[in-house]
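Quick sanity check, Glucosamine--fructose-6-phosphate aminotransferase (Isomerizing):
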Amino acid sequence: MQPGQHMSADIAAQPKIYADLVARQSELAGVAAKIAERRPRFALLAARGSSDHAALYAKYLIEVLLQLPAGLVSPSTTTLYGARPDLTDVLLVSVSQSGGSPDLLEVTESARRQGALTVAVTNTPDSPLNLAAELSVDVGAGPEVAVAATKTYSATLLALYLLIDAVRGGKGEQAAKLGELAQRTLDESQSAVDEAVQRFRFVNRVLTTGRGYSSATAAEAALKLAETSYLSARSYSGADLLHGPVAAVDAETGVLAVTSSGQGGAAMREVLDVVHSRGADVFAVGSAAAKVSAALRIPVAESAEEVAPMLEVLPVQRLALGLSLARGGDPDSPRGLNKVTKTR
């Protein structure tokens, strides 16, 4: 078996997964209707690892599309410190690919006892987390053999979008063509990804950055590069980058900037002007990549800003795959990692 074979297959499967998930919009709308009926006063999101980045994306969706305050849960406040806040009229969304992490299970069970409406979003419909939550959503990505999450991550993003959009009464219109846009993105970005692999293969320090919805992609990019290529990768919001971290940027730093069309991408232009002027090798990914200062640009199909993370993450995954192989690794079996990580 060739190194990276599983990860490559999982990446290639995403366009069909998107199309299949969009076709299930009415199923997710049924869950959304129950959420809307309860009229939560704010939302909390519980997750770990890649799912935590999906939760960050959902936080933006909830605050922007639903106009509800939202926050990310620190599971240890429940599991280690025994906090039991009153969660009456609160929506708790627990996001987990496996649905088997003990800390997320304990947080969900506790939140339900404390009055929250609990929703599990997983790729394992019969998981303990699904059984613990009042409502559940199956992201439908199918089995993922590679350790590094790719299709389960992107499918989780789309499931969260369809769910949250349906809560506000939408029918997933902005996501309707994501399947074909994803295939186009994979096809049209490959040569630029190959070039980026050659430019980044000897870099040991990478900084990833984005704004708004794309903050989640930047965070996921740092994790993928760290776990598959063993790079020292750190993610910063473009809003924070100039407040101090830019001091560490120099000609030896690789910068991956996520810049899709919309307000978040527009806000990155000035930031990248500064970063580029410091001599960093800036690699811009997204539908607005052509509009920012960068040494290399990877095109992504145009979409509404709120669904762009499902497209911009695709070449990022391909970059992580390519870099791992170019550096002599096997992204299907990163050292020291397991498919399911259990924490408390």
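Posting the structure with no commentary besides this: Residues 120 and 136 are 5 Å apart (CA to CA).
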